[in-house]
Structures are given as structure tokens and as C-alpha cells.
Amino acid sequence: MKAAIPREFPFVHATACVDQGAAIGDGTKIWHFTHVMSGALIGARCTLGQNVFVASGVRIGDRVKIQNNVSVYQGVELEDDVFCGPSVVFTNVLTPRSLVPRNGPRDFQRTLVKRGATIGANATLVCGITIGEFAFIGAGAVVTGDVPPHALAYGNPARIAGYVCECGEPLNLAGPEVRCFSCGKHFGDTGESSITAQVVR
Q: Is CB count within 10 Å lower at the N or C end of the chain?
């Protein structure tokens, strides 16, 4: 008979505020001055840095890292293994007005950041978009549209400048096959990766 694996309880810093009704996964660490609202769902083994805000209804997967000064508003979903650099900006309303209340679920546009994606420091994501699996958004980018899997995008507005491996290293598209020179992963016609058809040829 297998021994039961002991539960690794979440760590919540004394200055953080986790409202009753928020769900926090095993081993997740929530640091200084962070606020997680009731109804938020945060997976296992995540790290939320200093001064992070997570709104009600937000879903965050497992092993997500959110660095300091990031607000994750209602309508945003982060899948497993997403990385958000310091001061990443999410939005959830396309036409905000101070005089016109927009605070119901129908007012919020969905933003989905898929598994393994990286969003660099100070990047801004205009709401209503999808960032594909293992995509890489450069620091300071302003992302106004969908980004395909494994794409490297940066600038204002962000444009695709190449493609990256699951390990984060750039892929060389010049040869007859696409292989990561860092980790050795192959992106040929084997179908083993979800990388875009623009890379697999």
C-alpha cells in the first residue's frame, strides 16, 4: 500500500489579503500586499509576488508565476505554467467610461493566456484576445490581437518577429527541419508539437 503524500499547504504572507471564498491550491505562495478576491480560483504551486491583485471569477492554473505589481481582472484566465513579468497590464473592458457603469460579467471581454506562455515585464494586453501555447510576449509590448502558439511578439503594436521553443529559446527556421538548438526538441512533420503551420513545413 502506497503511503499518502502529505499535503503542502499554501503560504500566505501576513500582509496579504485572501478573501473568504477564494480557492488556493497546494504549495502556492502569496506574497506581500497581494489581494485575492472571493471567487478567484488559483491552482497548485503558483507564486504571486508583491502587490498582485486577483479579481473574483479569475481562473489561474497550476505552476503559474506572477511577478510584482500585476492586476489580473475578471475575464482573464491564465492556464498552467504561464509566466507574467513585473507590471504586466491586463484589461477587461474595451470602451471604459467613468460615467458609464461597466461592472457586470457581460461587460468584460475574455482574455485567455494559454499553457506555457510568457508575458514580459510591462507588456499590456488589450482584452478579448488569446495568447497561444508557449508564445513569448516581449517586454513593453502592446498586444492588440491574438498571438499564435510559440510566436515571439514584441513592439507597439506587437508584431510577430519569430518563433520560440517550449524552453523559450528562438527557433531557426532556415533549414529543412525545425529543431531547437538549446534543448534538442524537434518541430518537423512528426506532429509532436502544436507549433503553427508557418513553422512546420
A: N
